[in-house]
Input
Amino acid sequence: MTYPDSVRFLYSLGNEVKTAKYDLERITTLLAALGNPERLPRIVHVAGTNGKGSVCAMIDSGLRAAGLRTGLFTSPHLVEPTERIRISGCPVTAGRFSAAFDRVHACAEQLLNQGAIDLHPTYFETVTAMAFLLFQERQTEAVVFEVGLGGRLDATNVVHPELCVITPVDFDHEALLGKSLEAIAGEKAGILKSGAPAVFAAQRAEARQTLDCRASGLDIEVIHAQEAWHLDDVELSAHGSAFTLRDGAELHIQCPLAGEHQVSNAVTAVAALRRLGIAGSAIEHGIAAARWPGRLERVSDSPEIILDGAHNPAGARALAAYIRRFYSHRHVVLIYGAMRDKAVEEIAGILFAHADEIIATAPCQSRAVDPETIRALGSHPCLRTAPDLSAALDMARAAADPDRVIFVTGSLFLVGEAITLLNR
Output
């Protein structure tokens, strides 16, 4: 198939939740038929609720700074599905993406005809298998895999990693992962493997106890990143942070990812890179060169526009803290859109009080929350609605006010649309 055809087919597979099979049988069967391309060297497997994409990007950047040919698998994408599979920091080409899709799709059809699998692999399962093939084909020396959802039953959890990393665990996808932090942490802890050390970010007490218990049962080494490294000389700005880390050695970290929460993410990435044996100079250069679009990303200066995919309560708290610290003296316009499976009322309660104006809108997705529903759920004296992001941006930019800053947030789908619109 051509690249557009392959993307259309992937989208046609429909709602991931409705077709997902909550075990690893289908992906395991598919990969076995493909020759087990998941058996790659030096795999880092990363789970967590928030920060796992940023941590993956920083680990990948550190590995590249050390001279390694890397693979990076993340989700979701913002604009193009090719963003999910990166080699040496660059998204795979459309041609390579479609060629890998053809191989996986043909194998899946053959397995279906044989009755070896029940349904065509889901979008995520298919792209996961494609990533394994492409990393094998391009002879990557180290790969970083971000878990899609949960951990224990995620399609990426077929790997045998050199290192597991778990970023902060918080509430999200409760219908699938459980209603308590302990239950959610139990699903994340499912990526831990005997013989593979683990790095844990700072955790809430309930989550930490669950993670530590699972690690103890497997008798694996655990590094609690924020305890292993002494953090000092922290300088925060609207554009990133600088700080010193000490564990006997001393590292001077310049983190270009904005937000106080990225300090913790960077410490976690540093701990992972150090455990992988990466030299301090490569760690410093790698973190400084890391990029992670759509997360407190400034995309325009006049007016100032910042994109942030704060799609769950923890992300909303991080964005609220960022606005409070750096933009409390500015006129803040918040364009917000969300999907129906998100805690919209809770997020609105966290975020909306920090903005002078709210424009509720909807990403172009069938599962998007109607803007009028957001109006009903969110209390704010200046809350308007717009049918789509283009109209919302026009409304936000209508006033020629140099003090105005516009945040586009909520769904990562909305952030992706903003990137496309603003690039035009």
